[in-house]
Design a protein that fits this description.
Layout: H1 13-26, H2 61-67, H3 72-81, H4 84-88, E1 93-98, H5 100-104, H6 110-114, H7 120-128, E2 131-132, E3 144-147, E4 153-159, E5 162-165, E6 168-177, E7 180-185
Length: 194
């Protein structure tokens, strides 16, 4: 089964922002759906980061991230942006999660600046740029543009048998959660200025 992505030329950012707001409001009332956590790593991994993949059946994307020390910076950013309820809600998402090593590649002082309360809107923009509002497994990824929750598009490509998301490389795929799937990337994806 292939997921049909919304073309980049169609602008549904307000719809996604409304869905995001609804998820924030309704998430305390919603329960998690059962899922099975598993992972498939690319044949040739260029990183030595070990990712914990054994998760309880009802783990949300946020629960999985919180239990993995390689995602502690991502979790801190999610908390600073106030997006915890979204990644715990039972909406269906695909999240391209940068590792701690990926965040360490940001320019000096950039992460610290993003985590300040006065930069919360910019942080939300960056984090929601890593989220697609549908569950897309590695087998369903097709080259081309895909609209994110942030409203702008990511470019997906397959280069030398590896999935690229803009300039980031997917280093592990298909960590299934009750509310979607996580693909792990080696760089933080910064949306270009509109």
């Amino acid at each position: 089964m292939f997921v049909e992505f919304i073309p980049a030329s169609m602008h549904f950012s307000s719809l996604f922002k409304e869905a995001l707001t609804a998820a924030l409001i309704l998430s305390p009332l919603l329960g998690a759906m059962p899922a099975q956590a598993e992972i498939s790593k690319p044949a040739e991994s260029t990183t030595t980061t070990e990712i914990q993949t054994s998760q309880p059946a009802q783990s949300s994307i946020l629960d999985i991230a919180k239990r993995n020390e390689n995602f502690s910076t991502f979790v801190a950013a999610i908390q600073a942006a106030g997006l915890e309820k979204v990644l715990s809600s039972d909406g269906q998402f695909t999240v391209f999660v940068p590792t701690n090593e990926a965040f360490a590649k940001l320019s000096e002082g950039q992460l610290e600046a993003l985590l300040k309360p006065e930069n919360k809107n910019q942080l939300i923009s960056i984090l929601t740029y890593h989220v697609v509002p549908a569950t897309v497994t590695s087998a369903e990824i097709q080259p081309g543009a895909v609209t994110t929750v942030e409203g702008r598009s990511l470019q997906l490509a397959i280069v030398d048998s590896k999935v690229k998301v803009n300039q980031a490389t997917v280093i592990a795929t298909d960590i299934k959660a009750s509310n979607g799937v996580i693909h792990i990337i080696d760089s933080v994806i910064i949306p270009s200025a509109q």
